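explain this chain.
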Amino acid sequence: MSEEKQKTGCSTDVWDGWGHSKCSRKGVIEREGKLYCRQHDPVAKAKKEEERDAAWRAQWDEKKRQHRIQGERDAFARDCVQEIAERAAGKIDKDEGSKDEG
């Protein structure tokens, strides 16, 4: 690789399918003495990863919320079925809606 290419090209090593090589794009952003293209700029890369992770966390939180709500609905349905079964067996006074104590 020529000296000029090393000075102006992106300093990131990339996988090209056969091995690692330097990115072929022009370095336009300098960070800590190294040139980076817009795709491999560490600051932009970190920002993009954080945005992606935030979107993933929001989706995951929504799925967890829906799962919790479904669990509450299932528990309520079980309680209703149990109460109906107890009423049918005569364990609960039908007029009062409370369990017999005796």
User: Anything to note?
Assistant: The first strand starts at residue 13 and ends at 15. Helices lie at 3-8, 42-89. Residues 51-91 form one domain.
